[in-house]
Amino acid sequence: MMQVDFRIPVNPVIQPPPLVEEVLDADERDALKARIKALMRAQDAVLVAHYYTSADLQDLAEETGGCVSDSLEMARFGHAHPARTLIVAGVRFMGETAKILNPEKRVLMPDLAAECSLDLACPADAFAAWCDAHPDRLSVVYANTSAAVKARADWVVTSGIAARIVKYLHRQGHKLLWAPDRHLGEYVARVTGADMILWPGACVVHEAFKARALAALRAEHPQAAVLVHPESPQDVIAQADVVGSTTQLIEAARTLPNREFIVATDRGIFHKMLAAAPGKTFIEAPTAGEGATCVSCAHCPWMAMNGLRKLLHVLESGANEIHIDEPVRVRAQRSIERMLEFAAAEKAGRIQLGD
């Protein structure tokens, strides 16, 4: 059983900022990177960047011994790395997750105004009231939420492990609340059969993908494999050859024999896909269609707020440090650690879900 609870008083209509991407000429790019690298060495800092950030930031992270990955791996990498300062290029909840798992470290972000539509759509007070109204259900929240929401939740999950954890909880007889992405929640409920009530949030990037336009694009590229992130609408997911997290989609691009791929996720991922699968062609899934305002908007405007100029500014000024109240951080860490412990137990064979 699965239902979306549209009675929830979600935040007013979320207006994303204009999409403004940093544009640099070669000389300025080289000068910025040289200055940033010197300051990172001086401040014992490491850069972790999300797949959806700019190619410049992804390249800089790897050139300086950092990490380019999804939000959870970014935080885990930061925890394992000896650097005393973590610079998180991504959106705010990613910086918060890094601080939750690394309280002893200084965590900086290029722009604290880089938000996430899913996070914004799930305010902590409304989420807590929702949980209180359903005391018979465990709450499972996606990583794209604030520290305060994670602190109130029973479990935190990423897209790569969500279905396995929900399947595990379902087999134990639990009924669930799921927040905030209803599309990912619908997908997880369908593949697990779990009894879930869903928060009615959605990602402004993934919700824009259009099923009819995707079908037409597939007809134009019949040999292309379709890679879809599960934050997308169900009629888009239904056309996928592979449904998965960012890391899983990159691996599919690398290992599948197809030479063309239609990709329904943020186009920032193309930089890593091209590096993992040189010689292959990647095509943005369309956002054109009824209700659309552009041919393909597939890039998060909040992710685009990150750039080399802002990164240099925070290193020079010490601005944009992430702070979380300790009681909130401790409770949020508990919910995240349940996921990490599950993953470790499954890997060790102590939890076996089968098919």
List keywords for this structure.
single chain; 355 residues; alpha/beta; Rossmann fold; five-stranded parallel sheet; globular
TL;DR of this structure?
The protein is of the alpha/beta class and 355 residues long. It has 15 helices and 13 strands.
> Rg to the nearest angstrom?
20 Å
Question: Would you count the extended β strands for me?
Answer: 13
Largest sheet: 5 strands, parallel
Q: According to CATH, what is the topology of the largest domain?
A: Rossmann fold
| Overall tally of domains | 3
In the CATH classification, which architecture of the largest domain applies? Answer: 3-Layer(aba) Sandwich
Folded structure, characterized:
This protein is an alpha/beta fold. It has 3 domains: 111 residues, Rossmann fold (3-Layer(aba) Sandwich), CATH 3.40.50.10800; 87 residues, NadA-like (Rossmann fold, 3-Layer(aba) Sandwich), CATH 3.40.50.10800; 94 residues, 3-Layer(aba) Sandwich (Rossmann fold). The chain is built from 15 helices and 13 strands. The strands form 3 sheets. The chain has a 5-stranded parallel β-sheet. A 4-stranded parallel β-sheet has the order 3-2-4-5, with helices on both faces. Strands 11-10-12-13 form a 4-stranded parallel β-sheet, with helices on one face. Strand 10, helix 11 and strand 11 form a beta-alpha-beta unit. Helix 1 packs parallel to helix 14 and helix 8 packs across helix 9.
